[in-house]
């Protein structure tokens, strides 16, 4: 998608692909699908998944009232752990 390419370019490039989930298959499979917002059926809950090179989820975060945004330092640290173990 053009918007994904523009976003990655703005960040100086990314070492992974960004995914578009038009059919809402991933949000359903990962258990983060929302159907409670009128007009936005199937949108994802704010979430972060760190997946290793074998496709195994090694770390996950999901939005809550107590933590509406992830701790970005923790996300980076967890991603580095997974990358180092590869």
Low-confidence regions: none
Strand portion: 15-25%
Q: What class do helices, strands and sheet pairing give?
A: alpha+beta
Overall pLDDT level: 91
Shape: globular
Helix fraction by DSSP (H/I, runs of at least 4): 25-40%
Major sheet summary line:
2 strands, antiparallel
Distance between the termini: 28 Å
- Strand order, sheet with most strands: 1-2
Order of helices and strands: HHEEEEH
Rg, Cα atoms, Å: 14 Å
- Number of distinct helices: 3
Number of strands: 4
Number of domains: 2
Give a written overview of the molecule.
The structure is a single chain. The chain has helices at 2-10, 25-29, 72-85, and strands at 33-34, 43-44, 47-51, 57-62. Helices cover 33% and strands 17% of the residues. The protein has two domains: 1-45, no CATH class; 46-86. The chain is of the alpha+beta class. The model has no long low-confidence stretch (mean pLDDT 91). The protein has a two-stranded antiparallel ribbon with strand order 1-2. The chain has a two-stranded antiparallel ribbon with strand order 3-4. It is globular and about 40 Å long. It has three helices and four strands, in the order ααββββα.
What's the quick description here?
The chain is α+β, with helices and mostly antiparallel strands. It has helices at residues 2-10, 25-29, 72-85; strands spanning 33-34, 43-44, 47-51, 57-62.
Salient structural properties:
two-stranded antiparallel ribbon, alpha+beta
Task: Set down the secondary structure blueprint.
Layout (H helix, E strand, L loop, with lengths): L1 H9 L14 H5 L3 E2 L8 E2 L2 E5 L5 E6 L9 H14 L1
Antiparallel strand pairs: 1-2, 3-4
């Amino acid at each position: 998608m053009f918007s994904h390419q523009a976003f990655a370019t703005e960040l100086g490039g990314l070492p992974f692909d960004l995914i578009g989930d038009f059919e809402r298959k991933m949000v359903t499979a990962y258990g983060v699908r929302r159907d409670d917002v009128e007009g936005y059926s199937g949108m994802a809950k704010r979430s972060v998944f760190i997946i290793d090179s074998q496709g195994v989820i090694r770390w996950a975060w999901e939005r809550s009232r107590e933590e509406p945004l992830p701790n970005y330092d923790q996300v980076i640290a967890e991603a580095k752990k997974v990358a180092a173990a590869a």
